[in-house]
Amino acid sequence: MKRIFIVSGVTLLTIILFVTGYYLSSTDFGRKDILSTEPRKPVIEIPVTYNIGWWTDQKALKVDSLKIDIVESRLNLFNSKSLISYKVIGHLENKGYFIKEVHISERINLDTTLNYDRVIEITPVIKDKESTKVNSEKDKFEFKNEHIINSNHWGINRIKFICGLKEQTIELQQIK
Questions:
Q1: Residues 130-143: pLDDT tens digits?
Q2: How far is Cα 79 from Cα 73, in angstroms, rounded to an integer?
Q3: What is the rounded (10 degree) CA torsion for 124, 45, 32, 50?
Q4: Sign of torsion, CA 96 100 93 56?
Q5: Which pairing describes strands 48-49 and 97-108: parallel, antiparallel, or unpaired?
Q6: Greatest alpha-carbon span in the chain
Q7: Which SS3 state, helix, strand or coil, does residue 24 take?
Q8: What is the pLDDT of residue 128?
């Protein structure tokens, strides 16, 4: 009889640990609902700001390429969020500068003649190094950040990304 209670107790403990582990792994350790289809948290290489502060010489910034990828997009009746990544490659005209942070600006497009719903502008913010020596050589930079975006409406949502003179449009489909 004692043996049956021990085996039952170990079995019950194993089931409880398994269910707890499953719950924690499926809810991102309790940070989201168990039935949530929202994307995971974004990975950030360069800090993001939404405020305009003191910007050094933005004229020294030259963007060579912009690449937008959809990382996670499970849009449905209960989820309107998608995770995208943006990769910016460019160079700085002065060697004494570096990319301090990234400014992101989002706005809805009210011009119905254009073929997109929203505009997201990505601006790398330059900061000068505390150096008295400034070389005229170019410094190359490359970074990749992730960003969570919301769809605007049911159906196809076209979002235009702008960074410097580079543009790319993506489509997300919100279904019922």
A1: 654 545 556 889 99
A2: 9
A3: -20
A4: negative
A5: parallel
A6: 85
A7: helix
A8: 77
φ, ψ for residue 25, nearest 5 deg: -75, -35
How many CA atoms within 13 Å lie on the side-chain side of 111?
Answer: 6
Q: What is the pLDDT of residues 5-60, one digit of tens each?
A: 677 777 888 888 888 877 777 666 666 665 567 788 898 999 998 887 777 678 88
Provide the whole-model pTM: 0.74
Tokens (6 digits) for 164: 């410097």
**Run of H or E residues at 157:** strand 155-163
Question: C-alpha distances in angstroms, 53 versus 44, 103, 127, 167?
Answer: 20, 10, 11, 24
User: How many whole angstroms separate alpha carbon 32 and alpha carbon 128?
Assistant: 40
